[in-house]
Amino acid sequence: MKSKKSIVLINQDSGYLMIDIVNHISENYDETTLIAGKLIERGTKLKDRVGLDWIAEYRRNSLLSKFFSWFLGFFQALYLVGFKYKSSELFIVSNPPFAVFIPLFFRRKFKLLIFDIYPDVLVNSISWFKFTPIAVSWRQLNKIVFKRAEKIYTIGEGLKATLEQYVSSDKIEVVPLWTNNDFIYSIPRENNVFLKEKSFENNFIVLYSGNLGKTQHPEIILELAKWLKSKSDLHFVIIGSGSEKLLLEDRIKIENIQNVSMFNWQDPSLLPHTFSSGHIAIVTSGSQVNNLSIPSKTFNFMSVGVPILGISSPNSELGKLIHKYKIGACFDPSEVNEIAAFILKLKEDLDLYNFYSENSLSTSKLFTIENVNRFL
Questions:
Q1: Are strands 204-209 and 280-284 parallel, antiparallel or unpaired?
Q2: Residue among 63, 75, 51, 57 nearest 12 (CA)
Q3: Whether pTM exceeds 0.85
């Protein structure tokens, strides 16, 4: 009797991208299981045929909580792979970062999807970390694991270039991220539930929606708000959470910054409304991860046709994307004056605003779920 073909996919922080990948890959296997710490379903649900096993949820509250949740999630996934899914192929996403080491413990066929490259992210954040025994060993283990992988997928050319220090380029394939224009689409402001609930219908909204960690430089938003406080109809909206959230809330209160409003994560069903609430969408990429990641929300903002204000090096993956498709502008975090001037320019110049808006929407149609086919 022919044995069943099975695969286990591991991603501690799973969202719409992972659901699309799992659903697609499951078509080629008799048994498919996702091991996750969190699963956020929005437009597309996980197929009924896909099994689900839980590990610790990824915690962003602080550096300590991140590492603790990474270690706990890694050991739980290791246990499940070793004792519950003994003969399954593996598809491992780099969250938790240590998950890529699971193949060192078992002889299995496996593929990797690298969103963030470690220890490189840490080395870029903490220069002295590069010379520590942990970083040196981590790099050596990467070389061993990556060489054994059947295939290594990543999401940008900058990430690929970094991966090439560990493994030959012919094993790496770049798969651009994607959005879902059937779920994320522009909601007219008069029908926007989020705007009505918060009474923002008559404001020009500069929106930030995402993680509020150190690498996102969210404090820049407060500096911009103070710089533009004389514009009474211009308002900054921040949606999200992370290690810097309490500090931001304290600063808003202490410094009496009245043109900024902060909100917790909204229900996923409201995403078309929250993304459509902004006239301009801020997307940040810290200097330490300029070429090591690209925020997936960038593609979602394109779906609602909103101009992108990138806060990152213009030579970053994010900056190159914005420049190539002319969907907005990208500035270094130090260029607060220039960023403020760009916001005002878009507020006052309708032709320029429409140029970026139309480009953003048309570009979203180049980054569709069809990209998921490349994982087979």
A1: parallel
A2: 57
A3: yes
Domain ranges of the chain: 6-175, 189-364
| Residue 372: burial class (beta carbons within 10 Å; 0-12, 13-18, 19+) | middle
Number of residues that make up the chain? 376
Q: What local confidence, expressed as pLDDT, does residue 288 receive?
A: 53
Low-confidence spans in the chain with pLDDT less than 70: 1-2, 286-293
- Please report the pLDDT score of residue 313 as a whole number: 87
Fold of 189-364: Rossmann fold (3.40.50)
Give the pLDDT of residue 292: 61
Look up the CATH number of domain 6-175.
3.40.50.2000
